[in-house]
Design brief:
Helix 3 packs parallel to helix 6 (129-138) and helix 6 (129-138) runs antiparallel to helix 7 (150-168). By secondary structure, the chain is mostly helical. The protein is elongated, with a radius of gyration of 22 Å. The protein has a domain at 59-191. Helices cover 69% and strands 0% of the residues.
Length: 194
């Protein structure tokens, strides 16, 4: 029964490959999502929603993932750089009064909603995307070695903020904006790293 043995071996390899792909996707490495309409369904069952809406969600998924990675990368960079130079109390020393007031208000509101998970453990997770630009601009000396100049980083973050706000409010970007995001992400990673 060599055919049966070959079939078993082929089936075992296929199942092993499928398992490896599942592992990669669980680690955040997209293998199937661009070509697999069921990828979103594995995250949340959405079959009760109209097909057109699900199609839009699949189109928005890579953009959301890109912004998630970018924004959190920028937050990490800001914390790392300001903590390095100003110490663990960098927030008190570097954030503007207006930024501190806004963040404290958000943290207080979340404190009342104890049933819901908090945004994060530190103040940086309560800032707006635009606040990250402000922190970089106000403490430019701590970031100057990373970027060609202040305008380079601030103009990109300002343009990205407009696209980010569209995505954050569950809307779609057109192909031109998607391409801008792709280019800016590549620029960011080349300039600063991931």
């Amino acid at each position: 029964m060599p055919e049966l043995d070959e079939l078993r071996a082929w089936l075992f390899r296929a199942l092993s490959a499928e398992d490896k792909i599942d592992t990669l996707e669980a680690e955040g490495i997209s293998v199937r999502a661009p070509s697999d309409a069921r990828a979103l369904q594995r995250v949340l069952p959405l079959e009760d929603f109209p097909q057109g809406l699900r199609r839009q969600a699949m189109r928005a998924l890579p953009v959301y993932l890109a912004f998630f990675c970018l924004e959190n990368s920028i937050r990490g960079l800001v914390v790392e750089r300001l903590e390095e130079t100003h110490g663990s109390d960098w927030w008190e020393k570097c954030a503007s009064t207006q930024m501190k007031t806004k963040v404290e208000g958000r943290r207080t509101k979340e404190g009342r909603d104890r049933w819901h998970i908090n945004r994060g453990e530190s103040e940086i997770y309560y800032t707006d995307f635009g606040d990250l630009s402000s922190l970089i601009q106000n403490k430019w000396v701590d970031f100057a070695d990373l970027f060609p100049d202040q305008n380079w980083v601030l103009s990109r973050l300002t343009e990205l903020e407009a696209s980010r706000n569209i995505i954050a409010h569950s809307n779609s970007l057109d192909e031109r904006e998607f391409e801008r995001l792709r280019l800016y992400l590549q620029d960011w990673v080349r300039q600063v790293g991931g």
